[in-house]
Write a structure and sequence with these properties.
Shape: globular
Helix content: 25-40%
Structural class: alpha/beta
Bound molecules: adenosine-5'-diphosphate
Number of strands: 20
Distance between the termini: 70 Å
Low-confidence stretches: none
Radius of gyration: 23 Å
Number of helices: 15
Length: 486
């Protein structure tokens, strides 16, 4: 069992209409600790019945919630934020137990996740509209922003808490109500947020959380429901495309945060130490399982060997193990399928001439989900790691000669989420930043994620932005009032 102070944060029922309830079928599904493979919970396995009822309740709750003032909604959100911070250690433990990431990192996620709630508590009263000078003498034009309606959200396992608050906080701030389906691998962090939402005073039905082992069944209800006006999804590009097609029938507003294939470019004039530290942070966070993790490292010829040497020794210092053990910085991967996929990518790269300078295999017992942090030198564009999202602790390092060449390689992908580059030449910084076809560019910075900046992609990495002043717009619709003065 999980050793937490607030035992009631560990819930196994679905959170519908403000109550934790069993599935009507009485079915449950197991949740495992990916480090020990021990079962840690058995959670309600919701289906279409629960999805329909949660949507109905959210629709009813919307009629009242939308009439609250921004200040009133903001106060409840602020309380929710305070509670998340007050119980951050418990929330982080639950997160580590079900997801595997080291406790320090889990705590970082809880704080990051809570920061969206704090931010949108403030933004709730700033959904300003406009007054437009009339186009005719008798006309006055007013623009209102109103909540879009019931929101359906589907979230992944790699950030089981923050991906929820990043969607729910702006939606609630805007005046929407939400039905959320967390990943089947990590439903516990989501349910814990439900406990604290009730404690913060969120009215029943405003937020509903449906754990399920049958994502397509709930996805179908969400996308086909006429009551749901907005779909917000974070996950793989393949599932995102499917949901987009499904949502097309009822023409829903959509936000999609999909896969990435981030380039991490190091120019000859870069500060080598900083580039190495940045590459380690950007590649191995969450055992390489984030959509903004650098996927392809491109290093200019002049410093290629020096980079490989320093990077390899920094990567060797990364300690693997149980996320609850002090000093561990890389936890297990999420499931066997994920390790198998990384193994296949590494052997493909080796067959095509890559050179392993560290790592390259599973760590510990044969069934362990720990995969050693790996560096693949001499990577080339014919390798699968060039095209595919690795989603694991493996860093292929490509050599390049000119700026033009590296921009072409960096953009040679259907993805366009995060990108990074290191260098000092000011005119080149501006040129490269403009040339990269990505929604986010880290310049001498390995991180692009913060509440106050817009997060999101272009191309097949999706549409819409989360966080920042732009994030709330995803949950608002514009209405114009054309007023003829009598
Ligand atoms: P990942 O590779 O990160 O697991 P997925 O896209 O498979 O990405 O999963 C992200 C979320 O999408 C999870 O909550 C998962 O349950 C959900 N999901 C997967 N397939 C479907 C589907 N057909 N309909 C609705 N949700 C789905």
């Amino acid at each position: 069992m999980i050793d937490i102070q607030r035992k009631d944060l560990l819930q196994e029922g679905a959170f519908i209409g403000g109550q934790f309830v069993a599935a009507s079928s009485q079915k449950q599904f197991p949740v495992y600790n990916p480090y020990s493979s021990a079962q840690i919970a058995s959670v309600a396995d919701c289906g279409a019945t629960e999805a329909k009822s949660a949507i109905d309740l959210a629709y009813t709750a919307f009629q009242t919630w939308k009439s609250y003032t921004g200040t009133e909604r903001g106060r409840i959100l602020r309380k929710w934020y305070d509670l998340q911070r007050a119980h951050e250690k418990d929330l982080a433990k639950i997160l580590t137990m079900e997801q595997g990431k080291p406790f320090r990192e889990a705590l970082g996620e809880i704080r990051y996740g809570a920061s969206f709630v704090e931010w949108f508590a403030e933004e709730a009263r700033r959904t300003y509209g406009d007054v437009i000078p009339g186009h005719q003498r008798d006309k006055r034009i007013i623009v209102l922003k109103q909540p879009v309606g019931v929101v359906a959200a589907i979230t992944p396992w790699n950030f089981p808490s923050a991906m929820i608050t990043r969607k729910v906080a702006p939606a609630l701030a805007a005046g929407c109500t939400v039905v959320i389906k967390p990943s089947e691998l990590t439903p516990l962090s989501a349910l814990a947020l439900g406990v604290l939402a009730t404690e913060a005073g969120l009215p029943p039905g405003v937020l509903n959380i449906l754990p399920t082992n049958n994502a397509p069944e709930i996805g179908n209800v969400m996308t086909s429901s006429k009551l749901v006006k907005k779909l917000s999804f974070t996950g793989s590009t393949a599932v995102g495309k499917l949901l987009l097609k499904q949502a097309a029938d009822s023409v829903k507003k959509v936000s999609m945060e999909l896969g990435g294939n981030a380039p991490f470019i190091v120019f000859n004039d870069a500060d080598l130490e900083k580039a190495v530290t940045g590459a380690v942070a950007s590649k191995y966070t969450n055992a390489g399982q984030t959509c903004v993790c650098s996927n392809r490292l491109f290093v200019q010829e002049g410093i290629y060997e020096a980079f490989i040497e320093k990077f390899t020794s920094a990567v060797r210092e990364q300690t693997l193990g149980d996320g609850m053990t002090k000093g561990v910085v890389i936890g297990p991967m999420i499931e066997e399928k994920a390790v198998a996929s990384v193994e296949a990518l590494v052997s493909d790269a080796l067959e095509k001439g890559a050179r392993i300078t560290c790592g390259g295999q599973r760590h510990g017992a044969p069934q362990s989900l720990l995969y050693e942090p790996t560096v693949l030198a001499d990577a080339s564009t014919d390798m699968a790691v060039f095209r595919k999202e690795i989603f694991g602790p493996v860093a292929p390092v490509f050599k390049f000669d000119t700026e033009e060449e590296v921009i072409a390689m960096a953009n040679d992908t259907e993805y366009g989420l995060a990108s990074y580059f290191y260098g000092k030449d000011h005119s080149r910084i501006w040129r490269v930043a403009e040339a990269l076809e990505y929604g986010m560019v880290g310049i001498n910075s390995p991180s692009v994620s913060t509440t106050v900046a817009p997060f999101g992609g272009v191309k097949e990495s999706g549409m819409g932005r989360e966080g920042s002043k732009y994030g709330i717009e995803e949950y608002l619709v514009i209405k114009q009032l054309m007023w003829a003065v009598q």
